[in-house]
Amino acid sequence: MDLGIAGKWALVGGASKGLGWGCAAALVQEGVNVVMVARGADALNAAAAGLRAQATRPGQQVLAVAADITKPEGREAAFTVAGGPGRDFDIVVTNAGGPPPGDFRSWEREAWIAALDANMLTPIELIKATVDGMAARGFGRIVNITSSAVKAPIDILGLSNGARTGLTGFVAGLSRSGIAAQGVTINNLLPGAFDTDRLKGTMKGAADKTGQPIEAIMDARRKTIPAKRFGNPEEFGAICAFLCSQQAGYITGQNVLADGGAYPGTF
C-alpha cells in the first residue's frame, strides 16, 4: 500500500534505536524526509547512515540532530538543522525515554517535574510549535509514543503513569478541536513489551532484585503475552507509519495499543 506521504517531512524523537528508530525507518521506506533526534551522537549518526542507504526516492533527506529533545535548546536544534524544514513538519513523532521505576514514596518534587518535562510537556511543546503550520497547509500527523501503562497502569511506573496520562488527556481535547477539520490528526501509540534496550533494562532490574537469571525473567514475561513473544521495532514502526498516512485521516484522538494481546479488557 502506498501511504501517500512520500516527500513530506517528519520529525522523530529518540530515533537512534528502539521504537523511535522503528518509526523513522518505516517513514524513510515510505519516501518521507526524516529529521532524526537523539542524545547519543555516535548511535544516531550510525542509524541515520543506515537509513540513508534505504532511501526510496531521489533527493530524499535523512538528517541527524544529536540533542536532547526534552530541552528547549534541543528542540531548537531540530527546528534549525541545515537542510530541514524549520518548523514546517508534516509529521511529528514524539518520543522520549521513560522515567525510572520505583516507589512513589521515594520521589521528590524534582523527580515528578523531570517526568512531566520529558513525557508530557515536551510533546506539548512540539505540538505547539508545529500544529498551526500543519493546519494552514491542510495536512498533519502527530503520533505520541506513550505506553501501555496509560491503559493498564503498572504500580512501579508511577512517574510514567502520571506524566503520560496527563498527555493523553491533553491530546483527547486538542485532537477534537478545530484542527481535526483542517486535516490534522493526533494519536497516541501505546507500546507493550517490545524488544528494546529499555525492556532489557527493566528485566535486568527485576533479575537483580530477585536473584533470578535475566533469561528466566524475560521468558516468564513472554509467557504472560498471548502472542508469546516480544514485539519488534519494525512492526511498531509500521503501525506508526500507517497512522501518519493519507489513509488514516479519519483516525484522531485515539490510543492505539500494540501489546500482543496482553491487555485483558474489552475496551
Name its key features:
SDR; 267 residues; 42% helix; seven-stranded parallel β-sheet; NAD(P)-bd_dom_sf; SDR family oxidoreductase; SDR_fam; alpha/beta; globular; 14% strand
Return residue spans where pLDDT drops below 50 for at least 5 consecutive residues. Answer: none
Fraction of residues in β-strands: 5-15%
Q: Span between N and C termini?
A: 29 Å
Oligomer: single chain
Largest sheet, in brief, is: 7 strands, parallel
Number of strands: 7
Query: Could you give the order of the helices and strands?
Result: EHEHEHEHEHEHHHE
Rg over CA atoms: 18 Å
Strand order of the largest sheet: 3-2-1-4-5-6-7
DSSP helical segment count = 8
Helix percentage: 40-55%
